[in-house]
Amino acid sequence: MEETLSIIKPDGVNKKLIGTILKKFEDNGFEIINIKRLTLTNEQAGEFYSIHKERPFFKELVSFMTSGPCVPFVIKGENAILRVREIMGATDPSEAAEGTIRADYADSIDKNIIHGSDSKESAEIEIPFFFG
Ligand code: CMP
Fold it and tell me: What separation in Å is there between the alpha carbon of 132 and the centre of ligand 1?
């Protein structure tokens, strides 16, 4: 059993995809064990994505993630970290496999609907970031 952190990003909330996305994970056998809705401050978004702070897209990423409410949630299940990433699809929706969340709903690599922890180490930092 693993736990991982996912975030429905402002574009996903704006497109009214909260229910669709949560159902997809539940239908795949996962449990949603914690969830909230909030609008990140610049400081919070910068800290959450601090690993990317030297990347050229950092400023745009922070600006997008603070543009409206997002919905972070904790997913629990077998092999959750890897399987959640498979269900989300590749970061760039044009490379995402058919039937994945990003292939079906994302507009671009910047506005890609959903975030998921990329490793056990990230999940262990990202879950307490939102849920203490
Ligand atoms: P996410 O999984 O939330 O992690 C960092 C985000 O930066 C990523 O999804 C993308 O939305 C965004 N991003 C924009 N450009 C890039 C890029 N070239 N490589 C990786 N992530 C990018």
Answer: 24
Please give the residue range of the domain that contains residue 126.
2-39+70-131
Tokens standing for 115? 């975030």
Closest residue by CA, ligand 1 atom 13: 110
* Number of domain units in the chain: 1
pTM for the full predicted model: 0.97
Strands in 16-126 per DSSP E: 31-35, 71-77, 114-116
Residue 125's CATH number? 3.30.70.141
Instruction: Please indicate, yes or no, if residue 60 is contained in any of the structural domains.
Output: no
Quick: pLDDT tens for 15-55.
999 999 999 999 999 999 999 999 999 999 999 999 999 99
Q: Which residues line ligand 1 (CB under 6 A)?
A: 52, 57, 61, 91, 109-110, 112, 115
Contacts of 57 (CB under 8 A, 6+ apart): 110
